[in-house]
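Work through what follows:
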Amino acid sequence: MLQDSYGHLREKVQIRIWRRPGRSVDRATTEHLFEVINSREDVSRRLIRRCAYLKYVEARLGDRTLYADELSKDGVCLNMIDSPLCPLKVVTNLPEAVWDADIVVNDLPSTETRVPMENILYLRGPNIASEIYKKEYANARICGAEKWRKPLAKFLRQLHFIVWDNGDLVTHEVVGGLKNVYAIGAAFTHREEVDALTFRQWSFDFIGLLLPLTMEFSVADGGL
C-alpha cells in the first residue's frame, strides 16, 4: 500500500522493519513458496538480480533452512506466502532498527528502543495485512502524541483503509493484552466435553483473577 502511494518518495522517507530473528520456515511452506516464486516471473527475476534465488532452490532441496526475516528482506511475508510484496529493509537487531529513527510505529518496549515516549506510536488492527494487500476494506487505530499521530493517520489512510487516531496509547496497549485473557477463557468454556457448571464457574473466576493482574502489570510496565 505504501509502495503504491508513496514509492516515488523513497529517497525522502526511509522505513525499516524490525523482526525477531530465528523463526525458521518449515519444509512444506518452503516447497510451496518455491512454486509461488517460479509462477511469478517478476518475483523470480527480482530474486535472481538480488542473487537470492539460489537459496530458495537449496531450501527446496532440503539443503538449507530459510528464516522469516530473510523472507521479508526478499519481499515475502510468512503469513501471505502466495502474495510476494516489494523487498523491505528488515533489521533483526532492535537498537540498530531505531538508533536514528525519528518515529517508531509499533508496540515496542520504550525501555529497549530508547526512543522518547512522545515519538512512539501504536498501530493495530484486526488482522489487516491480507485485506490491505487485496485492497479490501480494513481499519486500524493509531495511538500516540498528536504531533505525529495526526499526520501519520492522514499519511496511511486510503479509500479502502480507514485509520482512526486516538491519543491514549497506554489504554490501547493494555486492552490489546487483555484480549488474550478473554481468548483463554473462551477456549475453556467452549469445551463441549466439559459442560459442568462448576467448570464454567471456575473459568470465569479464573478470568476475574487474571484481569486485575494483567491490568496492574500492563500499567506498571507502561503498557508498552
